[in-house]
Every structure is written in structure tokens, then in C-alpha cells.
Design a protein that fits this description.
Layout (H helix, E strand, L loop, with lengths): L1 E5 L7 H9 L5 E3 L11 H6 L7 E6 L2 E6 L1 H12 L12 H31 L7 H27 L12 H10 L6 H6 L1 H11 L2 H7 L4
Parallel strand pairs: 1-2
Antiparallel strand pairs: 1-3, 3-4
The structure holds glutathione.
The site of glutathione (GSH) has 10 residues, from loops.
């Protein structure tokens, strides 16, 4: 069995790279960039017809499994390469699995596009190309959604749990933090959601995230 993750770390590929690193897996990293047409070659389109990274290729005894969509890649790695032992990021029960699935789908649908707008127009793009009005509108839409997360984290902490889905850091935290982290340049939003900010900081300080982030790209 061998696992290959295609995509540079400075992209959504960080999600499967982080998951594999949390689990201490041996894997091949093919740091394919998303710029310059690298994802549009016939070879790559045969792997992912959308022409996007990440792609995970899992060579298994029963045959090759190809996964694309970054959240699916991270969830797949946790489910099929981790031990449900109550220590790893892998869900141990139907309840934990449901938490990982619902929060991952939620963050992609409710937060990802707006969080990316905040990141690009508050931080990443050259100042002269930023459009603060786009970031303002994105932050307005994000506000009620992050309140949902903040209330959930408050309820978790009320029962002594600092994580999203279980008493330990799981793939649910990984998937959601990888998106909500993009909204960190939205200072007012972060001030309004202090539990969320502290939770993101804890997730991003994890050695596995730091190690995955330092991979090529
Ligand atoms: N929903 C997809 C989005 C993937 C995506 O847009 N990837 C970007 C890099 S972060 C990409 O490959 N862009 C290349 C292109 O659009 O040509 C996922 O989560 O995997």
C-alpha cells in the first residue's frame, strides 16, 4: 500500500498533508503547483478532471483509489489510514464520524468562499489590487456563521472539552480550522469570537500542521 498526495502545501492540499502528518503516515508528496497550467496536463486531468489540487492516490491491495476534493481527501485519510483508537484524529464512533462530516460540509458551504475573500483582500493580494468592500461584505456574511461555531465551542468548553467533535483533536478540527484560519485577518470578527480565535491558534500551533506547512510549496 502506498499513499501519494499531489499538490503544494500552500494550497488546499494542506488538508490531506496535515491529516497524513497527524497520523504519522509514510507518504509520497508530489508538490504540484496550481499555477502555470500544471493541473491542466492530460496526465493530471486523468486523475482529477476538474484540474485542481489536491489529489490523493491510494495504491491498495484491491486496486488504486483516487480521491479529490480536499475535505474528502482529509476525511478519507483519517478513515482509511488512521486507527480509531481514541488517540488519533480518526473518528471512533458514528457520533464522531457524523461530527466530522457535518462540520466539514458546513465549513465548505457556509464559510470557505467568504473566508478566502477575507484572506485575499485583507492580506494576500498586493494592496493596490485589494478591494476592501469585498472583504467587508464577506465578513458580514461570515458573522452569523462564526457565531454558530463560537456557540458550539462554548458548549464544548462548558463540558470541559476544548475541541470541536471529541475530547481530543480530530479530523473535524483539522478540516474546519483549515478554512476558518483564512478569516483571521478579519480582526473585528475574531474579537467577536474569542473562543474561535483561541481554538484556531491551538490547531495551527500543532506540530503536525507546522510540519505539513513546511513541505515543499
Ligand atoms: N473544492 C476543491 C477546490 C480545489 C481548488 O480550487 N484547488 C486550487 C488550489 S487551492 C487549484 O487547484 N487551482 C487550480 C486551477 O483552478 O486551475 C477542493 O477543496 O479540493
Amino acid at each position: 500500500m502506498s499513499l501519494t498526495i499531489h499538490g503544494i502545501a500552500a494550497s488546499r492540499s494542506i488538508r490531506p498533508l496535515w491529516a497524513a502528518t497527524e497520523l504519522g503516515l509514510t507518504f509520497q508528496h508530489h508538490p504540484l503547483p496550481y499555477q502555470g497550467g500544471a493541473t491542466r496536463t492530460p496526465e493530471f486531468l486523468a486523475l482529477n478532471p476538474n484540474g485542481h489540487i489536491p489529489v490523493v492516490v491510494d495504491a491498495r491491495e484491491e486496486g488504486e483509489v483516487v480521491v479529490w476534493e480536499s475535505m474528502a481527501c482529509a476525511l478519507y485519510i483519517a478513515r482509511h489510514h488512521g486507527q480509531p483508537d481514541g488517540h488519533s484524529i480518526t473518528p471512533t464512533s458514528a457520533r464522531e464520524d457524523a461530527e466530522a462530516l457535518r462540520w466539514s460540509f458546513w465549513v465548505v458551504n457556509a464559510c470557505e468562499a467568504d473566508a478566502l475573500t477575507v484572506l485575499m483582500h485583507r492580506l494576500v493580494m498586493p494592496v493596490e489590487r485589494r478591494k476592501p468592500e469585498l472583504a467587508d461584505a464577506a465578513e458580514k456574511r461570515l458573522a452569523p456563521r462564526l457565531e454558530v461555531l463560537e456557540r458550539h465551542l462554548a458548549a464544548q468548553q462548558a463540558v470541559g472539552c476544548p475541541h470541536l467533535a471529541a475530547e481530543r483533536f480530530t479530523v473535524a478540527d483539522l478540516c474546519v480550522a483549515s478554512v476558518v484560519n483564512w478569516a483571521r485577518p478579519a480582526r473585528a470578527l475574531m474579537q467577536a469570537n474569542p473562543l474561535t480565535l483561541r481554538w484556531i491558534e491551538r490547531c495551527m500551533a500543532r506540530p503536525a500542521y507546522q510540519k505539513a506547512k513546511a513541505l515543499p510549496g
